[in-house]
Amino acid sequence: MKNLFKLLVALALLAFLFWQVDPHQAWQTITTATPWMVAAALLMQLLSQVTAAVRWKLIMHRLGFHHPFRFYLASYFKGALFNQVLPTSIGGDAYRIAEVHAHGAPLKEAFYAIFIDRIVGLIGLLLLNILALWWAPADLLPAVLLYGLVSITLAALTGFALLLWLHRLTPLYRWSFTRLFAELSERFYRVYRHPRDLAVQIGLSLLTHLFAMLAIFGLGHAVGINQPIGIYLALTPPAILLTILPLSFAGWGVREGALIGLFMLVGAAQAQVLAMSVLYGMILIFAALPGVFFYLKSKHRWL
């Protein structure tokens, strides 16, 4: 029922956007997009997912689970498949938790690992955005949005630092609710206690999102939004951040509306931005399709 609601929200948002924007012009922009740029965008998105799988393997390695990289790569693509294509009650993260649990990790440890992976990925997205905004024109974003992004980034970094330290507070282990945070903090410390490990994984997170932003940059240029890469790095992450909220299926509609609003700040045509976002949604689907092969080859399946 929840996924049906998300699907209806996505369809309603897309219908509204196509009603507001000339649908013929948007469709013509999609069909005339430069093919080689679209292909390059798909390659960038695939590289983004491979890089994220490397980061996840390093997290699991630090937590004591030493499966080969192929296992984590296959599981990551299967998770992407569930997130982007299949309207099931099992999300990509839930699938990855179930899979690593089926391969020897206690369920709680699998949950902690996915949570850490998500947190460091979010930190990478926020840092990439802040670095881009540092070099962007001062008046690119409205002050309220700029201050909001800075506040979210500072809060995320503070939370990250706090999770590295909380396990030292032994009273937290007395109650079941606070013990959850203490145990999560202990896993955070185990993964990131060496500065080199922290630097490598933050670097991988930055690279993961940079590849994804390059995919959107290529699609933007394929449809005629000829802005420099810095503008894309400054404007796109806030829209991607909004898709984290469980409002619609795979972020459809939310992503398109946010990107239209943000790219209008630099004078981009609404039809072009809508075409770029729809193409990126299609790229995400195609980039998840290797998960079909890995899923059919796997011993454990959940639907």
Structure, explained:
The protein is mostly helical. The chain has one domain. It is built from 13 helices and no strands. Helix 4 (69-84) packs across helix 12, helix 6 (107-135) packs antiparallel against helix 10 (229-242) and helix 10 (229-242) packs antiparallel against helix 11. The protein is globular and about 60 Å long.
Shape: globular
Low-confidence stretches: none
Q: H/E series, N to C?
A: HHHHHHHHHHHHH
Largest sheet: none
The first-to-last residue Cα distance is: 15 Å
Question: What's the number of extended β-strand segments?
Answer: 0
Bin the helical content.
over 70%
Rg calculated over all Cα atoms: 20 Å
SSE map:
Elements: H1 2-20, H2 23-31, H3 35-62, H4 69-84, H5 92-102, H6 107-135, H7 143-165, H8 176-192, H9 195-222, H10 229-242, H11 254-263, H12 270-288, H13 290-297
Helix pairs in contact: 2-12, 3-4, 3-6, 3-9, 3-12, 4-5, 4-12, 4-13, 5-6, 6-7, 6-9, 6-10, 7-8, 9-10, 9-12, 10-11, 11-12
Observed structural traits:
303 residues, mainly alpha, globular
Outline:
This protein is mostly helical and 303 residues long. It has 13 helices and no strands. Helix 4 packs across helix 12 (270-288), helix 6 (107-135) packs antiparallel against helix 10 (229-242) and helix 9 (195-222) packs across helix 10.
